[in-house]
């Protein structure tokens, strides 16, 4: 059944609103959770990098009452996956496993190499490879072998594809920490390597192959979202990274890595969220919004689905109620 057929059958009648929470990097507290609740979304997607194995923040994320799917990023295994960083670890690995503590805290909301069924929205969230650093080289060999019995990109693709094949809802959403390969090699591309002036495609090939498998299997992929590659570029301060692309299947890809996601200005602290509206399984609008301390949207920028694509920052006030 296609998304349109599902709608005709009455499976979905109301729009679905999704909040994407970009790389947190230690910027999360009760006010963020309250702001997310006030946005009145149907689902929240967290793209990872909560901190350097920041178990306390991950526990706060786990306690968020909004329905959610989470994937952990490379910083969430900072002192575990990398041999070099293990030498700098502030705790004893023989006594603690903070990666596992994060996974235990998140439970079924962590979708890395798995999935989350959201039947009330007719969505299945499929998770890509967790803890991804990005790029075409297979990194963290021992980590992935010991944790997931994964030894190659091909193994990883197969594991993600198994979740695709088992998905029970009509519409799929993919959630990764890093994005898929195949969207350009310039530094400003959605997964472009910006810390080297030569650029390069730093997307994940296994992620790209799993998405292709879903599309070629006639699964409807409405949305692919991820973070990791921050919007602000390392060497080019004249522009931002591409934050949204649409492929030939009509799938919308969103890079949610607005970093910092919390800013201080004269009027107070503002928190960013990317809001996606779906109707009949099709993305209608994508907005980057900033919410103030009284849970009011004070700025929004349309990335997709509006004739007016941008608004001046922090100039639009709309009470959430």
From TrEMBL:
<dbReference type="InterPro" id="IPR004843">
    <property type="entry name" value="Calcineurin-like_PHP"/>
</dbReference>
<dbReference type="Pfam" id="PF00149">
    <property type="entry name" value="Metallophos"/>
</dbReference>
<dbReference type="GO" id="GO:0016787">
    <property type="term" value="F:hydrolase activity"/>
</dbReference>
<dbReference type="InterPro" id="IPR029052">
    <property type="entry name" value="Metallo-depent_PP-like"/>
</dbReference>
<dbReference type="InterPro" id="IPR027629">
    <property type="entry name" value="DevT-like"/>
</dbReference>
<protein>
    <submittedName>
        <fullName>TIGR04168 family protein</fullName>
    </submittedName>
</protein>
<feature type="domain" description="Calcineurin-like phosphoesterase">
    <location>
        <begin position="17"/>
        <end position="231"/>
    </location>
</feature>
